[in-house]
Amino acid sequence: MVDQGIGIKPENLPHIFDRFYHLDKSGDQLYEGLGLGLAITKQVIEQHLGKLDVVSTPSKGSTFTMWLNVWKEDSLPARQGTMV
Fold first, then answer.
1. Which pLDDT does position 47 carry in this prediction?
2. What pLDDT shows up at residue 22?
3. Phi-psi region for residue 73, left (φ > 0), alpha (ψ -120 to 50) or beta?
4. CB within 10 Å: which end of the chain, N or C, has fewer?
5. Helices and strands of the chain, counted as H and E runs
6. What is the spatial distance between Cα 38 and Cα 53, in angstroms, rounded to a whole number?
7. Is 0.85 topped by the overall pTM?
């Protein structure tokens, strides 16, 4: 996903996937939220053996890239138990 938003400062990039992390600590309500969205997204992707990364330039925008493995049906791990 690519946006042309406000971008992310380099010093904030290592933290944007942390739970409850907010870029703006000034108390401005412009960007509301709990700070869980990116943390949960990254966790789900990694549980599927994928990767989530971001490249960002302040005042230019951000690019989020997600990689997921593609499995062939005959190479899937054996299922444990049965689904009801």
1. 92
2. 78
3. alpha
4. C
5. 1, 2
6. 11
7. no
